[in-house]
Amino acid sequence: MNPIDLRYHKEHSWVKPEGNRVVMGITDFAQGELGDIVYIDLSETDAELEANGEFSEIESTKRTYSIISPVTGTIVKVNEDLADTPELINEDPYEKGWIAVIELTNPSELDSMMDSDEYEKFLASKGK
Amino acid sequence: MMRLGIIGAGPGGYVAALKAARLGAHVTIIEDTEVGGTCLNRGCIPTKALLACTEAYSRARELDKFGVDLAGAVTPNLAKMQDRKDRIVQTQVKGIRGLFKSWGIALMEGRGRLISSHTIEATKKDGSVEKIDCDAIIIATGSRPALLPGFPFDGKTVLTSDDTLSMTEIPTSMIIVGAGVIGCEWACIFRELGTEVTMLELMPRAVVTEDEEVSDLLAREFKKKKIKLMTSVKVEKVEFTEAGVRATLGDGKTIDAQKLLVSVGRALNTEGLGLEEQGIARGPRGQITVDDKMQTNVPGVYAVGDVTGGMMLAHVASEQGTVAALNACGHEASMDYASVPAAVFTSPEIASVGLREHQAKERGIKYRTGKVEFRALSKAHAMGEIAGFIKLIAEHDTDKLLGAHIIGPHASDLVHEAALAMRRGLTINDLEQTIHAHPTLSEGMREAAEDVHGRGTHCPKT
């Protein structure tokens, strides 16, 4: 089940608020859809992000996929482990498979994101 | 017998010579370096020979992935690779010289200059001078690497693509100025050999002549290989350092490396040909102006290949050489540039024909696209080469194929299905209707065609 302490974005990413920052990753649903992840294009720290804009490309054996950024902000840290073991995203999408830590420009964006119940209903409504 | 004089025996000149000889002309061809020109001696062939070596090395480093156990180290030997390349080039050179002999084409080694619209003055390598009277002349002198003013070229530390072909030691690090076709091909070769490569490109993306999505994917693949690609940067200064060379960018940032390769384009070989004296019209870049029959403004004088600017590709030069030879020999022929394929031998390989998507947009054409990733093809998985895609652009109302863009394994071969379709004005439906053998990469052409109509067989329901 999707962790209850996280907020969810409609493009299947999650954020964990930590003060004015969030840890971000993709959901269990997303990693399942992608299949075996073989590569993620890790952004540079200090990269600027726009909510609903492109975050980075992720590649699985099935397809490549553009991860959409859930928030507006600046990247302060990326999960370097993913360079050698991108499959951590498949194995543990909410913990070891975290992707980036983002400093928020607009913390109120979190309010319009879904909680785990809403996200589950959202997935169900899409017949997934 | 019609007498044809050709200056330059590269892919433009030597093909013109063979075509004209076949039509019964008496051909004299003058070459100041070696038959086969840039393509055979300093470009296409030598780089592809080296590429095969680096691919072998790359494969050798991942044998474990393919279930092969290797006991011992795998080491690239650039000197040996260059030797192999030299032997391959020599064989091809002999082949062309043999063809000339077979067709009775007179090969003169030296430089040629027009002293009238029907006479070439040839200065041979031994210093002797000979006048060649012609009924028609074809200028096919080609191009050479463009040098940037202020760059201290020495052929050892600051190099052009001519110099890299004689390197025998693998550099530890290299700056490549210019991320066009030539720069990117060399970046892949050197990176594979273990060199730390930094690319500096003025434009906002690499291989700017290709479709934008192709540039994006190449940039990502370069990132995976740890080739550092910096776009929208200008090199203000290059100076020698103790370790090699230092490049200073417009923002003051400096980059150090052992070697620096300049690949910013080609300069046209128009000097010493008597062009001004004969009143041969030139374009803004100095290129010899020609019509679609390859005629210059001076009757009986033709020009083909890189020296005319345009699409600087060997196969375009050869096609132009053919057209010029046919016209010179009294037959009708003209150039059609509508479906000229082009390939970039990077890793992954790139090939394209027709409109890029941004060109379709700029021209206000109503179009549709279809795309398939190589990782959707079982053959690509079996081969272990899944990076890349095939993208087709079709005219919305007529369904005609307008462009094809491939980045991935065997792109340079796959593109020809699209080139043929475009030349014949075929539609996406025609591609869809054609059975493609399984398991092949060509099946991707069919899947991409299906995707144009939103009905890719192997696409999940959305």
Write up what this structure looks like.
The complex is a heterodimer of chains A (128) and B (462). Chain A has 128 residues and is of the alpha+beta class. Chain A contains four helices and nine strands; from the N terminus they run βββαβββββααβα. Chain A has helices at 28-34, 81-84, 88-91, 116-125; strands at residues 7-9, 13-18, 21-26, 37-40, 48-49, 54-60, 64-68, 73-78, 100-104. In chain A, strands 1-2-3-9-8-5 form a six-stranded antiparallel sheet. In chain A, strand 6 and strand 7 form a beta hairpin. The model of chain A has no long low-confidence stretch (mean pLDDT 93). Chain B is α/β, with parallel strands linked by helices and 462 residues long. Chain B has twelve helices and 22 strands. Chain B has helices at residues 11-22, 37-42, 44-61, 78-102, 181-193, 212-225, 314-328, 357-362, 378-383, 411-423, 428-433, 443-452, and strands spanning 3-7, 26-31, 106-116, 119-124, 129-133, 136-139, 143-145, 158-159, 173-177, 196-200, 228-230, 235-240, 245-249, 254-257, 259-262, 266-268, 301-303, 342-344, 350-354, 367-373, 389-395, 401-407. In chain B, helix 1 (11-22) runs parallel beside helix 7, helix 3 packs antiparallel against helix 4 and helix 3 (44-61) packs parallel to helix 5 (181-193). Chain B is globular, with a radius of gyration of 24 Å. The N and C termini of chain B lie far apart (69 Å). The mean pLDDT of chain B is 97.
Low-pLDDT runs of chain A: none
H/E element sequence of chain A: EEEHEEEEEHHEH
Name the average pLDDT of chain A. Answer: 93
Hey, roughly how much beta strand do the residues of chain A contain?
A: 25-35%
Helical content class of chain A: 10-25%
Q: Categorize the overall geometry of chain B.
A: globular
The most extensive interface, with participating residues per chain, is: A-B, 9 and 9 residues
Instruction: Please give the alpha-carbon distance between the first and last residues of chain B.
Output: 69 Å
How many E-type strands of chain A? Answer: 9
What's the total helix number of chain B? Answer: 12
Major sheet summary line of chain A? 6 strands, antiparallel
Largest sheet of chain B: 7 strands, mixed
Low-confidence blocks of residues of chain B: none
Rg calculated over all Cα atoms of chain A: 13 Å
Q: What number is the mean pLDDT of chain B?
A: 97
Radius of gyration of chain B in whole Å, from Cα?
A: 24 Å
Helix content bin of chain B: 25-40%
